[in-house]
Specification:
The chain is an alpha/beta fold and about 250 residues long. It has eight helices and six strands, in the order ααβαβαββαβαβαα. The protein has a six-stranded mixed β-sheet, sandwiched between helices. Residues about 15-35 and about 135-155 have low confidence and may be disordered.
C-alpha cells in the first residue's frame, strides 16, 4: 500500500505540473488524474469452464450471467477504480486462485457474483453473504471442509484471514443491500452469514451476491434482460463507491 500511496503522490505532482502548463496539457492532466484510482476492486464471476453453475430449464447458465454482470460493473467503475476480474472469459478457476487475485493486488474489496438454483421454481430472491467465523470445528460432513479458525494465541493462516474483516464485510453487505433494493424493490432480499470457501481467504472486506434464481421463471426473465443487468450493475457499483468513500473518512 506504501507503493500505491507513492504512486498517487507522483501522479498528483504530474497533474499539478500539467495544470500549470495549461492549454493543450489539460486533456493530459485529466487522463493522469483518472489514473489516480480511488481503490482496487476485484470482481469474481462465479463458475466457468466445465462448471456452468445453476441453469434454467432452457439452458441459460449461471457462468454466463455472472460474467456479463461483472463486465457491466467494471465498465461503471473503470474511470475511478482499478477493477480486476478473476476470470475474463469462459474458463474454470479454483477457489484459492479467485481470492489470490485479490490478495496479490492488495485489493480494497472482493465481490463474488452468483445466481441461485433450486428444484422448486417458486424459490427466489436476492441474498448477500458475508463470512461466518467458526470458532470450533463444524460437527457435520456438510461443512467439515471449512475447518476451524485459529485461536487467539496462534498465527492467523492465509485461508482464515477473512475472520478479521467480518465487521467490515457485514457493513459492505448492508450498503450493497440498500443500493440493490433501490433498483429491485425485492422484499425477499436478505443478508446472511455462511462459511463460504470463496470468501474465506480474502484479505479484505468480501461478500458474495446471489442476485436471483435462474430456476425461477420470473427472475430468469430479468437476468437475461440487458436493461435489468445494467441497472443492477449501476446499483452494485454505487454500493462499492459508497462503501469505499465511507471507509476513507
Amino acid at each position: 500500500r506504501d507503493r500505491q500511496k507513492t504512486k498517487h503522490i507522483l501522479i498528483a505532482c504530474l497533474v499539478a505540473i500539467a495544470i500549470l502548463l495549461g492549454g493543450k496539457s489539460d486533456a493530459w492532466s485529466k487522463k493522469l488524474f483518472r489514473q489516480g484510482y480511488k481503490g482496487i476492486v476485484v470482481l469474481d464471476p462465479g463458475h466457468g469452464g466445465n462448471d456452468p453453475g445453476a441453469q434454467s430449464s432452457d439452458g441459460v447458465q449461471e457462468k454466463t450471467i455472472t460474467l456479463n454482470l461483472a463486465h457491466l460493473i467494471a465498465n461503471e467503475l473503470e474511470d475511478n477504480f482499478k477493477v480486476l476480474l478473476t476470470r475474463t472469459d469462459d474458463y474454470g478457476l479454483d477457489i484459492p486462485n479467485r481470492t489470490a487475485v485479490a490478495n496479490h493486488q492488495n485489493a480494497d474489496l472482493f465481490i463474488s457474483l452468483h445466481t441461485g438454483g433450486s428444484f422448486l421454481h417458486s424459490v427466489g430472491g436476492m441474498a448477500i453473504f458475508y463470512f461466518e467465523n467458526y470458532s470450533q470445528p463444524p460437527g457435520n460432513d456438510e461443512t467439515s471442509s471449512i475447518g476451524a479458525l485459529t485461536s487467539n494465541d496462534s498465527p492467523l493462516q492465509w485461508n482464515q484471514i477473512q475472520a478479521k474483516y467480518v465487521t467490515g464485510s457485514k457493513k459492505l453487505a448492508e450498503v450493497m443491500q440498500a443500493e440493490i433494493f433501490s433498483i429491485t424493490q425485492d422484499p425477499d432480499s436478505r443478508i446472511q452469514q455462511a462459511p463460504l470457501l470463496v470468501l474465506k481467504g480474502a484479505d479484505m472486506p468480501a461478500i458474495l451476491i446471489e442476485f436471483g434464481y435462474l430456476t425461477n421463471p420470473n427472475e430468469r426473465k430479468a437476468l437475461i434482460d440487458n436493461d435489468f443487468l445494467a441497472l443492477l450493475a449501476k446499483a452494485i457499483s454505487k454500493g462499492i463507491k459508497t462503501f469505499l468513500s465511507k471507509k476513507r473518512q
